[in-house]
Amino acid sequence: MMEITLQDGLAYVTASLWHGKQQITLKNILLDTGSAGTVFSADKLLPLGVKLEPADPIHRIRGVGGTEFVFSKAIDRLAIGTLAINQFEVEIGAMDYGFELDGIIGLDFLTQVGAVVDLKQWVIYPSPLNVV
Asked: For position 16, which CATH number holds?
C-alpha cells in the first residue's frame, strides 16, 4: 500500500524506476486516471542514462495542457509501492506544463498492475483479485 498525497487539488505518488544498473525515486508523480499513458520528464530520467536514441519512436501526445512530442522507451522496472511492472514502456518528454512535475502515472500502468485507488483513505494498493 502506498500513500497518495494531495497538492493543489491533484493526487501525487512516489515512483521508483530502474534502468540498466541505475535506480531513481521520484516523489512528484501525478496519479492521473484520465491519462492513457505514463510519461516522465526527460530531465529526471537522465541519471538513469535514459535519453533519445535513433531507434526510439517519437510521437505527439495530447492532454488538457496541450500537445507535446515524446519518445517511447522500455525501462527495466517501474514501481509505486508494491505495484510494479518489469520491462514497461513509458513516454519521455519535456513536461513543461507550468508547474513542477516529475512524471504522470496513467491508466496503462494502473490497469496492468490492477491498482485500487482509494480516495477515502488516500492510498493505492493491489486489487485483492490479483493476489495469488
From this structure: 2.40.70.10
Distance of CA 42 to the CA centre of its chain: 12
How many domains are there within the chain?
1
13 secondary structure, DSSP code: E
The boundaries of the domain holding residue 108 are 2-130
Name the burial class of residue 90, with classes exposed (0-12), middle (13-18) and buried (19+) by CB atoms within 10 angstroms of its CB. Answer: buried
Is the pLDDT at 27 greater than 90, yes or no?
yes
| pLDDT of 116 higher than 60 | yes
CA 78 to chain centre: 8
Residues 6+ apart with CB under 8 A from 83: 2, 109, 113, 115, 124, 125, 126
